[in-house]
Amino acid sequence: MNKLKELLAELKPAMAEISQQPGYPRAVYEPISYILGLGGKRIRPAMVLAAYKLFNEHYSPQVIQVAQAVEMFHNFTLLHDDIMDRSPIRRGKQTVHIKWDEATAILSGDLLQIEVYEKLAEVGDITILKLFNAMARELCEGQMNDMQFEQMAHVSNDEYLHMIHQKTAVLLGFSLQAGALLGGASTAQSQQLYDLGISIGLSFQLMDDYLDSFGETAKVGKRIGGDILEKKKTYLWNEMWNRLENSQQKEIESLYAEPDSEIITSVKRYMVQTGAKDATLNLAEHYNLKSLETLAQINTVGDQSYLSEIVYMLSSRDN
Amino acid sequence: MNKLKELLAELKPAMAEISQQPGYPRAVYEPISYILGLGGKRIRPAMVLAAYKLFNEHYSPQVIQVAQAVEMFHNFTLLHDDIMDRSPIRRGKQTVHIKWDEATAILSGDLLQIEVYEKLAEVGDITILKLFNAMARELCEGQMNDMQFEQMAHVSNDEYLHMIHQKTAVLLGFSLQAGALLGGASTAQSQQLYDLGISIGLSFQLMDDYLDSFGETAKVGKRIGGDILEKKKTYLWNEMWNRLENSQQKEIESLYAEPDSEIITSVKRYMVQTGAKDATLNLAEHYNLKSLETLAQINTVGDQSYLSEIVYMLSSRDN
């Protein structure tokens, strides 16, 4: 993990800078400072730098600005998504709309989004601006799909994978692509990096879904079984549901209707018995292999060790 | 009004284009199509074109894109402000968060904001992008000030004028400035146009406040007295309040505490008696004169008649 640590150390001043929000009125800036100060793994800005290092040894101001922009944009989506999803907790702390109020959370998010574009204007690269916009549009579409899926009795695996592609993977794709372009990648190379980000993102989200049911609270940092309680139609859920006998499906339905039932334990047992757990791990592994293949194909002059470490770290995330 | 009509006719296809939102999922695009289709006076895009015509006879694709961007951005602010202000009605129709729901309104607004930046990326001018960002930041600050003022017992005239500068005037300033720059204005000329937009905006908002109490429902298009009922601390209100005797202030306070009181009639009478109504009209007229002076100073090669008509129309708005 030495390479990632190195990137995170290099990012530290840039991350500290964005969480300083000295403007007035304070009421609209304090929530931005708060959410950017909550931390997080800073994996997206690290990916920007790692992709840059494939092509260029010395950082330009632009690559740092893009690293800041992706972290700010990620936090903007969390801020607004938490309102939409009525989530009270984020990274172990109160969400903005709970700590302040909804109007403040909407407006601070809007301002944070404008600050993202201020960073992109400083970068001054219209191609990157257009790639960012296309990504941001997809991410909004993904959030709407995610919300609509909650109201649907059945979501196909294709629909689900398309949604996580939009909601999780495209921002990772953009992070790698923009870092590569600023480092001097060709259009073809930058597209390979985008594709790499997509497969990393899909694998990451499938593992996230797996860990939500089968992880350990201490390692995952949240209560286990949230998706099951919400009856979230993930790939993991679908693979189980589609393999169940009609009588078993009815049994589960009745458990959901019954308060204080052992729903998490029962559903997890079915997820194992039906092979849905293994199917999910296999699909995550499929995208991991794809990532490693893409990584091997990228022909660069620079240091590949940073990005390799990130890919290996994310792909071996079994806890 | 022939010149403005001409501009609005020229804008028609561009305005129709932005209200077509063919993307998927439909649930996130329909509200954007809805709010952009509600109409409105399209005064901001007309100002972009009018400022352009001061310097250039033939439209470029860019000037139309900026005209679209300012109208889209204006509607984005309405969409999100209506959630924050809990407004049920906009342009005689249900607001987005009522017709759909809050989560949809937040997300559609976010997507509309991204579409604004897609237009600005098409324009491809980093200077205009930076001016837009600075304006959008001020507008967010203004909205927060406006919300905070609702909770304050007293707001000074300086604070109020600063707030309407941010919330109303800067977007008009940007519209004229960006149109001028695209037409070929010098930096100094574009700054004059920005200043013109500011004085137009301040006068416009002061007249809007005046008409909210003293207009006619049929002409203004909304119920008269809304600001009074909400006890909004406008310049008009402040000028009245600061001139009242202590006993008169107490009398008004008691009317607010009493249901079904003739509060609107009583406050309006005081607004007239104290001279607050005239003071507001005088300040609006002061900014009008400033607008006309600035207009006269602008040294251009092109057709000034479009912008002149808009300035005269907005400044003579007494109904």
Mind explaining what this structure looks like?
2 copies of one chain form a homodimer. With 319 residues, chain A is an all-alpha fold. Chain A contains 16 helices and 2 strands. The first copy, chain A, has a two-stranded antiparallel sheet. The model of chain A has no long low-confidence stretch (mean pLDDT 95). The A-B interface holds A 23-25, 27-28, 80, 83-85, 102-104, 106-107, 109-111, 113-115, 117-118, 121, 124, 126, 129-130, 133, 136-137, 140-141, 143-145, 147-148 and B 23-25, 27-28, 80, 83-85, 102-104, 106-107, 109-111, 113-115, 117-118, 121, 124, 126, 129-130, 133, 136-137, 140-141, 143-145, 147-148.
Mind sketching the topology for me?
2 copies of one chain form a homodimer.
Chain A: H1 2-19, H2 26-37, H3 43-53, H4 61-84, E1 89-90, E2 93-94, H5 96-99, H6 102-123, H7 126-150, H8 157-183, H9 187-214, H10 217-220, H11 226-229, H12 235-243, H13 246-257, H14 263-273, H15 276-297, H16 305-315
Antiparallel strand pairs in A: 1-2
